[in-house]
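Quick note —
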Amino acid sequence: MEVECVGIFLLDDTITGGEKDALLVNSGLSMTINYLRNFIAGATSHFPAGRLWVPSLDLRDLVATKKAVMQKEKVGHSKSSKSKKGTKK
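Predicted structure written out below.
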């Protein structure tokens, strides 16, 4: 089984950038993953082997890991862009 989930959240305009980011990363991510866990449990409820329960996740670790990966990709991308500028054809 392969499942993807996208959360779309509408926030009030009075919420500032920092607050908005915190809400999306903490509450939005938590709600989206919880929905996904419940969807998988419901979709697999009639499987012969029984319902599939997705274990709980450490969201702080998930966010920290994702930030680290994105930072590495950003650094790697900027290095490759600089090296391409210096090469002649």
